[in-house]
Structures are given as structure tokens and as C-alpha cells.
Amino acid sequence: IEIADGDLNWPHLYTLTVRRIDVALNNARGQLKIKANESIAIGDCVYVLGWNPDDSAVVVGKADADSDSNMPAVGVATEAVSLNGLSVAKTSGLAEFGSTAFPANSELVVGTDSQLSWSGESNYPGSGDCLQVMGSGVTTGKVVLHPQIAYNIVP
């Protein structure tokens, strides 16, 4: 369902301004319509920079555990997106990301390269980095996303 922005008028009642219904439906499905402020790869964790009213999309950049100014992440890109491109980020639920072998029941966090990471990986946050849980590994290419918006700085 996609309805353009506009007004619904009921005689003698009131005017209700309608924002694009597809944005709300995507959010209910654990998705977020995004506009990229930089090139984003499949599996990159993304954080919010603002809102683009022309595209009815959330403007995002790559989240980075190395920099708390690029945090917290709100979702993960489900496909590669070029600068100013539109796409969808997965915000919760089951997500598939190619052939990455996510360990079953592993705690997944935002990595220092914007990709999902888990303990023992080279991109796992270290001292002074941000540690934000994004979900759990299921099996090869599959994760369950349940981002925790709060994050900690690793001592």
C-alpha cells in the first residue's frame, strides 16, 4: 500500500494530514525506508542523521563502533545503497545477509567497520569503542535483529 502525502477532509469534522502509509507499514514489518548519505554495503549497521520529506525516508549513515558520534545504530542495510540512494534497513526480526557464518546464539554487535560482529572477530569493539548489541546469530546468513538503542563504551 502506498498513498501519497495529502489531506483527508471530513465535512464539518477536521482535516487529517496523512504521511505516507508505506513508512508506517514498513516500520510495523521491522523495516525502515532509508536514504543513504554515503555508500552503504549489505550488512552495514546504520544510524539516523535526519529525515528527507521529499522521499519520506530516514537519512542514514554507517554506524561505527569506533566513533560514538556515529551511533547508536537503528538497523542493518539489507542491500547495497549508493550515495543518496533509497532502500530499506531491517530494524527487527529475522534478517538474511548472504553467506556470513553467524555463530548460532552469538551476541551480535556493531563492529568497528560498520558490519555485524561477534566476540573473537577482528572488527569486534575494543577499548574505548562503543558496544551496542544488535541481535543474535542464527546460522549461515541469518540473524535475529533486536537492537538495543543504548550502548556502552568498552573500558
How would you characterize this protein structure?
This protein has about 160 residues and is mainly beta. The protein has one helix at about 20-30, and strands spanning about 5-10, 15-20, 30-35, 45-50, 55-60, 75, 85-90, 95-100, 105-110, 115, 130, 135-145, 150-155. The strands form 4 sheets. It has a 5-stranded mixed beta barrel. Strands 8-12-9-10 form a 4-stranded antiparallel sheet, with no helix packed on it. A two-stranded antiparallel ribbon has the order 1-2. Strand 9 and strand 10 form a beta hairpin. The longest helix has 8 residues, at about 20-30.
Helix content bin: under 10%
Report on the biggest sheet.
Answer: 5 strands, mixed, barrel
Cα distance spanning the termini: 47 Å
Count of runs of 4 or more consecutive helical residues: 1
How much beta, percentage-wise? over 45%
Report the structural category.
mainly beta
Task: Tell the overall outline.
Answer: globular
Strand order, sheet with most strands: 3-5-4-6-7
Tally of DSSP β-strands: 13
Mean pLDDT: 83
The stretches of 5 or more residues where confidence is low (pLDDT under 50) are: 7-25
Integer-rounded radius of gyration: 17 Å
Q: What is the H/E string?
A: EEHEEEEEEEEEEE
Short description:
It is built from 1 helix and 13 strands; from the N terminus they run E-E-H-E-E-E-E-E-E-E-E-E-E-E.
How is the topology of this model organized?
Blueprint: E1 6-9, E2 15-18, H1 21-28, E3 31-36, E4 45-52, E5 57-62, E6 73-77, E7 86-90, E8 93-101, E9 107-110, E10 116-117, E11 130-131, E12 133-145, E13 152-153
Parallel strand pairs: 3-5
Antiparallel strand pairs: 1-2, 3-7, 4-5, 4-6, 6-7, 8-12, 9-10, 9-12, 11-13
